[in-house]
């Protein structure tokens, strides 16, 4: 490992391809939260699969505890998705088959020239990619258990969250004065909190860029209604979309005559049945 990579230093902000094929930076994935970063040998290693299965069980706690989780391996995109899907993992996996991280950090596992993996490491990162804890996982017992991570995160949150001890009389006095700077996530604007609540896009869910400050449109089952942030805080099942005006139908040029015409209006089910009946009657016997 490079000598400048140690607790208290800033981890490099690598940009790699995630399991969906999109280029992602670590800082983008972390946002303003602490993050656990796993540098993995990849799909072939049973020790790595065991560690990742433990994290699958731990991930729901990380999600509600404002903590991100990212895995980087030297697997290609197909192997990355096969490993992630086989585990049932829900966090981002980054693919680094060109071994950019391995070479840059000087962590090639020289004892395995055939697979040429990274020496496994686990990092607990403060906001800003600052290294809080690091674990060398060449041997399995060098890797942190879920309990180890829970202790690390408790200590980290005590350090970075001013409102950790909410019973502090000074915090109550600050709240009553309207001072929100020491309270998470009330220091953020509405837009920032919406972006904080956003999850990676999934099929059937549309996330929108919010233009309003006080309210926006929520679509459920095709119905539109206006509501406020507290009512839908961190609800990924709703598709949040900004209000839009119906656009004018486009003009289409006829290939034969060059005349322009507007596309036909969509028919109702009853009109469609009537049209089909007329076509049947027009057919020669």
Question: Which features does this protein show?
Answer:
12 strands; 7-stranded mixed β-sheet; alpha+beta; 285 residues; 3-stranded antiparallel β-sheet; Glutaredoxin
Distinct helical segment count = 8
The value of Rg in angstroms is 26 Å
- Could you state the order of secondary-structure elements as H and E? EEHEHEHEHEEHHHEEEEEH
* Span of the ends, CA to CA: 84 Å
| CATH architectural label of the domain at 15-160 | 3-Layer(aba) Sandwich
Helix content: 25-40%
Q: Regarding CATH, which class of the domain at 15-160?
A: Alpha Beta
The geometry reads as globular
Question: What's the CATH H-level homologous superfamily of the domain at 15-160?
Answer: Glutaredoxin
The number of strands is 12
Question: What is the arithmetic mean of pLDDT?
Answer: 77
Strand order, sheet with most strands: 2-1-5-4-3-6-7
Structural class: alpha+beta
Strand content: 15-25%
Major sheet details:
7 strands, mixed
- CATH domain topology of the domain at 15-160: Glutaredoxin
Outline the low-pLDDT stretches: 201-258
């Amino acid at each position: 490992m490079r000598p400048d990579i140690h607790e208290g230093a800033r981890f490099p902000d690598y940009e790699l391809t995630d399991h969906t094929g999109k280029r992602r930076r670590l800082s983008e994935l972390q946002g303003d939260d602490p993050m656990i970063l796993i540098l993995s040998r990849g799909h072939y290693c049973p020790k790595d699969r065991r560690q990742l299965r433990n994290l699958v069980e731990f991930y729901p706690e990380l999600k509600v505890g404002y903590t991100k989780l990212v895995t980087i391996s030297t697997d290609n995109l197909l192997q990355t998705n096969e490993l992630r899907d086989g585990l049932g993992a829900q966090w981002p996996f980054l693919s680094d088959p060109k071994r950019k991280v391995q070479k840059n950090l000087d962590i090639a596992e020289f004892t395995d020239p055939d697979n040429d993996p990274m020496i496994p490491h686990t990092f607990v990162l403060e906001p800003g990619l600052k290294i809080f804890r690091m674990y060398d996982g060449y041997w399995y017992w060098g890797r942190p258990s879920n309990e180890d991570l829970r202790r690390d995160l408790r200590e980290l949150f005590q350090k970075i969250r001013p409102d950790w001890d909410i019973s502090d009389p000074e915090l109550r006095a600050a709240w009553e004065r309207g001072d929100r700077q020491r309270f998470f996530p009330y220091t953020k604007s509405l837009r920032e909190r919406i972006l904080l609540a956003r999850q990676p896009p999934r099929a059937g869910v549309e996330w929108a860029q919010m233009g309003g400050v006080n309210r926006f449109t929520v679509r459920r089952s095709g119905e539109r209604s206006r509501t406020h942030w507290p009512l839908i805080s961190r609800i990924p099942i709703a598709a949040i979309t900004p209000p839009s005006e119906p656009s004018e139908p486009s003009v289409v040029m006829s290939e034969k005559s060059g005349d322009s015409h507007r596309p036909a209006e969509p028919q109702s089910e009853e009109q469609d049945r009537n049209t089909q009946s007329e076509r049947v009657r027009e057919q020669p016997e």
